[in-house]
Amino acid sequence: MRWIRPGLLVLLFPLFACSHAANGQSSLPYADAQKAPPVEEYRIQAGDQLDIKFFYNKDLNEQVTVRPDGRISLQLVKTVVAAGLTPEQLTVNLKKAYSVHLKDPEIAVIVRSFSSQRIYVDGEVGKPGMLPLTGPTTVRQAISQAGGFLYTGTQPMCC
């Protein structure tokens, strides 16, 4: 008779574990879009590569790199501040600047590469140094990209 109680508990546990989700509430973090943390818009930084596209004036299309001073050099409008702005903000600024030379310019700013997104892996790994950060990366993934742990790095330290 004693085995019935633990057995009954094992059988009933899944029912209680699922009851929270059955009430319309998810047990997963951020399952509801309203509870998700706000995503901050990307801000252009020095070293980023940008495509400046003109829909009706293809000869003005350019691929530029944001200089260390945060500016980009373009045809007709010369130098424009880009660092610290979102791509949408830069688009608005470029439309204003080009409207002196063009009637109702349609412009798109596309960030092609993010130079400032990088991590450093150091220590007993195959290739210590800087790695480009191209998306969400775990510590284990970064160590793997750096060539993995060396044999000397996996040994316990002793006296």
Notes on the protein architecture:
This protein is an alpha+beta fold and 159 residues long. Among the domains are: 49-113, wza like domain (wza like fold, 2-Layer Sandwich), CATH 3.30.1950.10; 118-153, no CATH class. Helix content is 24%, strand content 21%. It has three helices and seven strands; from the N terminus they run H-E-E-E-E-H-E-E-E-H. The chain has helices at 4-22, 87-98, 139-145, and strands spanning 49-54, 62-65, 71-74, 78-81, 107-113, 118-121, 129-132. Strands 2-1-5 form a three-stranded antiparallel β-sheet. Strand 1 (49-54) and strand 2 (62-65) form a beta hairpin. The longest helix is centred in the first third of the chain and has 19 residues, at 4-22.
How does the SSE layout of this entry go?
Blueprint: H1 4-22, E1 49-54, E2 62-65, E3 71-74, E4 78-81, H2 87-98, E5 107-113, E6 118-121, E7 129-132, H3 139-145
Antiparallel strand pairs: 1-2, 1-5, 3-4, 6-7
Task: Report the principal-axis shape.
Answer: elongated
CATH A-level architecture of the domain at 49-113: 2-Layer Sandwich
Question: What is the CATH superfamily classification of the domain at 49-113?
Answer: wza like domain
Radius of gyration: 27 Å
Give the tally of β-strands: 7
